[in-house]
Amino acid sequence: MLELLIISRRQMDHQRIGQSFVIPSASQLTRTVSLVGRSTLVDATGCHHSILVNFCTSFQHLNAMSQVLLFGSGPVAAQVQGWYMEAEQYDFCIDEGTQVALLTSNEWPSIEVGTKIVMRAIIQ
Question: Is the whole model's pTM more than 0.70, yes or no?
């Protein structure tokens, strides 16, 4: 009899725990995903990297993030792009297809979700 009482209580506990967890609806998930927006950084070799918009709030943040991403580009690509970055022979721009807007540390716009930022190596 004691065993049945214990089993019954465990089942009741499991039901209470199950009721406390609510599965979010599709609209709630979509809203959550849109809050964690992403942009695309195209490095100097043409590789596309999806990055959080939070890392695009300033030139310094994007510069630091691009250095981190370069390590995933492969040893040769990372080494070549690293050289351009160390020599400060690169820039960032927003590529809108028909128009290119240069991004500088002095003038930094608010980067929106879905923005394509291109890193360009400056060859002299």
Answer: no
